[in-house]
Write a sequence for this structure.
DNA sequence: GTAACTGCAAAATATTTGCATCCTT
DNA sequence: AAGGATGCAAATATTTTGCAGTTAC
């Protein structure tokens, strides 16, 4: 894990600092996407709020994480598996559970191709499905709190 | 138009006030979705900022408009064609143009059905495509500014 | 007339910027 | 040593809340 974190940072020409290591670790450990507020909580407010903003921005610029749009004014971020600075390849679906609040990347479900009206050119597609996730399905005994 | 606006408000048990009429008129005239800031600009700041927030909230509650998620922290709203208070039927794709900034509902392009992993139950799907719209396509001479 | 809506003030929250200091390389 | 990153203070922006006055019905 330590090596993986250092690797990601160095590969992206970011200096290896406490806040970056810790926040990147959070993303690696987390099963789902994280909003700014989540990160503040999970670091125990160890870092200045501004540092968290700046860290997220630089991760976003480098393509280490991607943002997941939402209609609730709480943008969430998740690790990019195959993104680079030039090319965001987030061709997967995001799932937002209304029960536990978790947002996860469904890496295996690919965004279907669609036919746009004449004249439109598509560059990027975001698909966010909301509903109930497998851990919150009624009758599921493995229910667990959001991480 | 006047009749249509009154009709929508009365049907939804909202009293017919200046701000509601004006903001609803904006949506009816607008080719695309509107963010809070757009509405303030287009009304010439005629109404208090708080009134705009409250008007948007009540329209949203009544199902008169729906929100369009985005990754840029600027939630946009668009008229619902077939939504009711209980059932938001926004089964269409939203298109966000990177050139003119307009966000439009592609009413004719329906969200394709997808197969989720076992255990997931889908309630609502949001699909936002970004790229270049037909009016901003290179070589298109009918280019026009965002409304 | 009454309930609902608006505008103003202010609080609460979220985000950005400048700068001096500290840390990584 | 030099450049970049951090923390603090403060500016700016966004959203919510309370309340008194106004408007719709």
């Amino acid at each position: 894990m330590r090596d993986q974190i250092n690797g990601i940072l160095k590969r992206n020409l970011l200096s290896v600092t406490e806040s970056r290591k810790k926040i990147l670790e959070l993303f690696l450990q987390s099963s789902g996407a994280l909003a700014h507020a989540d990160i503040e909580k999970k670091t125990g407010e160890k870092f200045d709020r501004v540092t968290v903003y700046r860290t997220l921005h630089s991760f976003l610029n480098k393509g280490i994480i991607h943002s997941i749009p939402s209609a609730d004014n709480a943008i969430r971020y998740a690790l990019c598996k195959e993104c680079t600075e030039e090319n965001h390849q987030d061709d997967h679906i995001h799932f937002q559970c209304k029960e536990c609040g978790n947002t996860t990347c469904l890496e295996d479900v690919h965004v279907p191709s669609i036919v746009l009206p004449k004249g439109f050119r598509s560059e990027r597609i975001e698909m966010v499905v909301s509903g109930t996730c497998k851990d919150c399905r009624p009758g599921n005994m493995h229910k667990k709190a959001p991480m």
The helical segments of chain B are 2-11, 18-29, 36-42, 49-62. DSSP finds four helices and six strands in chain B.
